[in-house]
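Tutorial handout. Part one gives the primary structure; part two gives the three-dimensional structure as tokens.
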Amino acid sequence: MGAKMSTEFDLVIRGGRIATASDIFNADIGICGGKIVALGLGLAKGQDEIDANGRLVLPGGVDAHCHFDQPTSDGSVMADDFESGPRSAAFGGTTTVIPFACQKKGQSLRAAVDDYHNRANGKSVIDYAFHLIVTDPTPQVLGQELPALIREGYTSFKIYTTYDDLKLNDREIIEVFALAKREGALTMVHAENSDAIAWLTEALERAGQTAPRHHADARPAIAEREATHRAISLAEIVDVAMLVVHVSGGEAMDQIAAARAKGLKVFAETCPQYILLTADDLDLDGFEGAKHICSPPPRDTASQDSLGSSFKCNTQSPLGIGCCDGHTKQAPQQRGTWRDISRA
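Part two.
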């Protein structure tokens, strides 16, 4: 690649096991001006050198689903902002993060993007970009703001079928899908049936079942399955690609696999919590179980196996961290039940 063997490099990473998109091999890496300019054995000495013998040298990770310093309707504060979150990511080998600029209902989408730039400016130690969250698809947003933002490079946005201050109705979802098709953007969908969750939640609360483990009872797999099927159906009407985010298990995955078998452009993302945790982790002593609350909730080992099989047959695409952490010091003093800490 490019540079002569006699070139003195700014940095040489020496003797590592290199993984590229197509091959795995042992080599040195020569870097000049912050760019890789040579791969080979016995490269000339660099001004700085890193001994990577016996180590893997991988491209930096891209975390395409995380939430930093995002405004919330209940006044809760996220644990990570654009300083702490990217710093933590860098220590884990992630060099790019893509969090979400969230529109509040009644707010201009452009104002949400500007606010998020202000929150991030000068803080991140790694590269970052923004997805958008569309919660109020007014004629102004769909007709002017969102098309303009897409043309500026904000080409992916997330919509919700749950949470009162975030969710869209079916007509609004179709309108967003239609715009995404027209403008060449990608819509991400958090798919859970809001009304079913609300009914189950109220029934559990009336029965006094407010411990963290009941979070899983209030958001069963069937609520995720139904909303996933509905979102896929609406996307099929418009004939547009979509990504179902943080898929928790087999029931939703079956809907995605069936859609892909029909030739629909449906993709799926899962997260580490659905591979590493089950609903049993919500039942740990004290407040420990609440630390594992996420939405959709973790399922069971059969769901974990289903997700693993889906990865192997490429039904799944990305793995997102999906971090949406709150400060544990806000709970349990400030928070009543699992209902109050169930966002994701």
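Part three, for discussion. Residues 221-238 form the longest helix (18 residues). The domain at 61-341 is CATH 3.20.20.140 (TIM Barrel).
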